[in-house]
Amino acid sequence: MIALATAGLVAAGIAALPAESVDVRSRPAAAIATPAALKQAVDQGVPTEEEALAAAQEAGQSVEVTSLREQRRTVVANSDGTFTAKEFAESVRTLKGGAWVDIDESLAQRADGSWTPKATTADVVFSDGGDGPFARVRVAGRELALSWPGGGLPKPLIDGDSARYRNVLPDVDLVVQAEADGFGHLIVVNTPEAAKNPDLARLELGVDTKALTLQETSAGALRAIDSDSKGVVLEAASPVMWDAGGRGSGTATTARTAAFAAEPAVTENGLEPPQDATTAPVDLEVSQDKLTLIPSQALLTDPGTSFPVVIDPIERTTSRTAWTSVMKGMPNEQDWKFSGSAGMGKCPIDYNPVACNGVDVRRLMYTMPTSFYKGKDILEATFAVRVAHIYSATPEDEPVRLYRVGGKNYGINSSTDWGNTDTLWDSHIMTVDKAISPVSCSSAPNLRFESGKGGALTQEVQAAATGGWTQMTFGLRAADEGDLHEWKRMCGNAVLEVTYNRPPAQVSMKEMWSSPGGACATSTGVLRTPHVDEMPKLLVIPRDPDHSTQEAEPVKVRFRIEWTDANGNAQRHEQDTGYSSPTGAKFEYKIKLPKGKPAIPENAKVYWSAAVHDKATWGPWSWEGDSAVRCEFVLDRNVPGKPDVASKEFPEDKSGELGVGETGTFTFSPNLGDKFDDDVTRYSYDFTTDAVGPKNITPSSPTAPVSVQFTPGQLGTVVLEVTSYDAANNPSTPAVYSFVVKEGKSVAGQWNLGDDPLASSEGRHVKDESDNGRVASVGAAVTFTTKDGPGGTADRAAHLDGSTNAYLTTDGPVVDTAKGFSVSAWVRPTALDKDGVVVSQDGAGEPGFTLGYDAVAKNWTFTVPVNDVESLGAWRATATTNATCKDSTTKPVCPNEWVHLTGTYDPAGGQLQLYVNGELKKTAARQSNWSGRGGLQIGRAVTKTGYARNFTGDIAEVRAYDRLTPAAEIKSMLTVKPSRKGYWPLDTVSSGATPDAVGGRALTLGGGATLFQQTPEQVVEGPWPLVTSVGTQGAVPGGHLVLAGGGYAATSSAPVSADGSFTIAARVRVAAESDTTDQALFSLPGAKTNRFLVRYTKFTADNPYGHWELAVPGSDDTAAAALTIPDDQAGDPTLDGGQHIAVVYDGLTKRLRLYVDGQLADAENASKHKIGYWAASGGLQIGRAKSGTGWADYLGGEVDDVRIYTGAADAVAVGWMADRLAQPDL
């Protein structure tokens, strides 16, 4: 049998496409909103881990995470907040037309008469007789076909997964059998007379390959090597032959042998010999057009041979799972990837000199991938197999031992045997000793090595997860390898089942405080250790990555208190809260020691810390990483009591009237019930979300209250800490006042300016997108839809020519300029020789504010006049720092370049703030307060004599808020709507090029690149492209790019320069992992190197898997250092259906992200991945990368659904791009 590695990943069924073009920033995740939706989630799974957790909790049962589904893996979310993954040694599902289906090896006839398995990971075709290959297998554009010498095959007899061609030689049959990942081929010699045929001395099978080179290994195995990567695409163990067993008569006298000779079935063990068969090696000779098998003439002519004799079961391989059987009596041989079952233990009939053929003792080994578990907390692990036969007539307790074979990343291969593994069985994990009733290899596992939390197998998998292992090998052997009663036959389709959890995050010191006492103070920190007059209440806000929604499983907090008692003895007390949901809420513990516990003395330091538990795992203690860093306080009953704090707008421990960006008042007053609190001279106060730090305020008298204003900048819990001081500067016990901030008011007015204005009898006007009805009338010198917007060609903007008629205006005010407000806009100035106002709002004689360009100062300004009538000056925030322009110059303002401006007024601090591209450039005090009650102006400002300072250039997305917009919200406004610059479905080709579906640059095919194109019949029968094309009635013929022989595809010029925001994505299947070369998926070259490069790295001796990696040089220089982002989960790129890869670059924040199958790569360091500007100059390259003056890193495999956008797509949009069904409107 020739075997093949293929695989698969996430998919969904054929679904209706959206009727309209979709904004890739905002594709929503599915919600579990109704009972019907919940039932569907349970039955079919949901895409994301978060959705699966929510559905599992609601349903009280496990729900599959479909985005993590692979051909050999299933992941479910459990109702207790954990996840369980099952890793299968053999494929259990495959992709057909973009949908997952269970493996089904039974044969079905195609329209052309050939036969193919109904559902396997390999594209296998068997002949219906006649000339041509009897078997053909394709993987990732590579192909191997085998032909019978002389051709002219008869019509096959079909039985399930097998096709038998009778009498290809007299009394000699050819049998081919489908497998989940490939196929087997056998030559069955039915009689002693047939065995004498001289044609059996050398069987020369014809070979035809595409992009493959055949090689014979030193161990006599066969490999098909990819022509590009030099990696192994197909692999088979050394061929063997066997007789029918029951040795002695020379004829088929047993019932089993007679059945085998008479029926098309291969054997009860699939492609394996009977236990009592006599085996012999088959020599192999390999060339590019012939595969020559040289059977053992000794076995064929031995009078004791039982017929039929089966020749040449060459066995399959896959890339990342493996199984084999090794034999003590044959230390240099193996049953690599045996089909069906193989023995384990002492061969039970070894007492017969000729039975068992000298096998003696067998052991089984299984290699399973573990990279998926990196960084996870392993709660339970189970290794399970199927026992197909036992020695005894009735089941008895016979122990089986489970081992870890070898060390980190050890894996078996087709050369693994007893001789090179006997010394590696030194890590015994556990033993199962029970009576086992045999089952078929298609049944549920009946031998399970189960290990709970802390169990031996769990610890082994945890060590692999913690150590970053990519794979580990398990071994099964009899406890007593001299006792034939412990012999069993076990199947190859083992399962590793792992229940895991992502531990709760470490509690941040910034989210720990005490009341009284205030924010966490440590011995090494800048905060003074608080003295409190009563035993405080301890408070923390926990975080858990698996529980980010209100529907998620609750968490609890453990508080630890440590002190030294009056006798000098160290004391500790721990107290758990109850479980509560959601995370991000406040958890508290009022210190109360149990009876018998030594008291906490006064005037001694007390240390406290916290950890979080999510019903599965404890997160780290808050001090872990530095054991000296613990929160602390001192109990001092003589210290003045805490002051009183109150707020109407933000009541304590509640959500009040106002939200983010709205200003509230907080009042402090002495605690008149405390005898020490009658001489307050000042209050020190600090809001935890205020970056400025503590501030002071002085009361008018020792007992008078004082008030301060505060504008919260974020959702959730905010803590205010207030300390009063007396005339001697003695501090009080700090008061702690926490409150909940809700979401701020929505935008008061928004004018996108991307569409043509509406016309009416009163003239042109544009819609207010906020739905507040504040339409803006349009001046005659404003044009629309002729200028590219900040998102590129598909995004439009308004153009103002700088004349007096270049403006837009509302009928009335949009914001109250005396209170908190914000305005923002995208702006591209085309003339910098005169002032240009972007946004303003009219007052009586002066504008209530202006945001725009100052030609004298040559910079951006945000200005509020001192008053409304007289020109007495203005309060002004000015951006005085230079910007780096795209022409590499530095200027205060870059002409002809888009920039995002935001001006805000915070009445709590009396501050004007000016942001440029999301960065705070300047603040200025505003010391007078008045309201401009006229209309909002876009492109001009009012003066005493009329309107002036008209803007010259382009404006888009003007927004006004009647509240402060905090920095985080301003940054979110910078997300430019991604504009599609290229979409190549790769379904058609003409004159060596495949078109851009949106009419842009074609991809020209070069080297050995070709396009696979489906016929109408293949839409039903397969094979299928990586991404299934769909029409109104379902699937339609599609295609994908096939890269071989130095093949590539490229555009004539760069679709994006990549010095600004961009997104690029594609689905790819790599033909083989390589230890000699990296393989480039896509690159965008400059003159000397690549602006960016996504490649699959070669593997090494220390790491048997490669991984996807994004590399971005700092400049266009061959010697430039590059930022690299690795895919830390190291998924398998050879799987059926491939992997989806996306690169997202946000040019404003300079942040770079790599997504693999919708998952953010190297998420732990994602915030650190920042790069600078330089522009690409060459066309987009698919399948190769720039290397000096030439090209390198050619990819061998298939690519589909290439997309490129200006603008940075978010994770939701990337998830939609990863769909296996084509999304032409995305």
List keywords for this structure.
single chain, mainly beta, Immunoglobulin-like, 9-stranded antiparallel β-sheet, disordered N terminus, 5 domains, flat, 9 helices, about 1250 residues, Jelly Rolls
Question: Can you describe this structure?
Answer:
6% of the residues lie in helices and 40% in strands. By secondary structure, it is mainly beta. α1 (35-44) packs across α2 (49-59). It is flat. The model is unreliable at 1-31, 248-270 and 350-354 (pLDDT under 50).
How would a textbook summarize the main sheet?
A: 9 strands, antiparallel
Helix content: under 10%
Kindly report how far apart the N and C termini lie.
44 Å
Mean pLDDT: 87
Q: What CATH architecture label of the largest domain applies?
A: Sandwich
Can you give me a brief rundown of this structure?
The chain is mostly beta strands and 1226 residues long.
What is the topological layout?
Blueprint: H1 35-44, H2 49-59, E1 63-64, E2 73-77, E3 83-88, E4 93-96, E5 99-102, E6 104-109, E7 115-119, E8 123-126, E9 135-139, E10 142-147, E11 157-159, E12 162-169, E13 172-179, E14 182-189, H3 192-195, E15 203-210, E16 212-216, E17 222-226, E18 232-236, E19 240-242, H4 255-262, E20 279-281, E21 283-286, E22 290-294, H5 297-301, E23 309-311, E24 322-327, E25 334-336, E26 341-346, E27 361-369, E28 377-385, E29 387-390, E30 398-405, E31 427-434, E32 447-451, H6 456-467, E33 471-478, E34 488-491, E35 495-501, E36 512-515, E37 518-519, E38 531-532, E39 537-540, E40 556-564, E41 570-576, E42 587-590, E43 605-613, E44 631-635, E45 644-646, E46 655-659, E47 664-669, E48 680-687, E49 695-697, E50 706-710, E51 716-726, E52 735-742, E53 749-751, E54 758-760, E55 763-766, E56 776-778, E57 782-789, E58 792-801, E59 808-810, E60 821-829, E61 836-841, E62 849-854, E63 859-865, E64 874-878, E65 883-884, E66 890-891, E67 899-906, E68 911-916, E69 919-925, E70 936-938, E71 941-943, E72 946-948, E73 952-961, H7 967-972, ...
Parallel strand pairs: 38-44, 46-52
Antiparallel strand pairs: 1-2, 2-3, 3-35, 4-5, 6-7, 8-9, 9-10, 10-15, 11-12, 12-13, 13-14, 14-23, 15-22, 16-17, 17-18, 19-20, 19-23, 21-22, 24-25, 24-27, 26-27, 26-34, 27-33, 28-32, 28-35, 29-34, 30-31, 30-33, 36-37, 36-39, 39-42, 40-41, 40-43, 43-44, 45-47, 47-50, 48-49, 48-51, 51-52, 53-73, ...
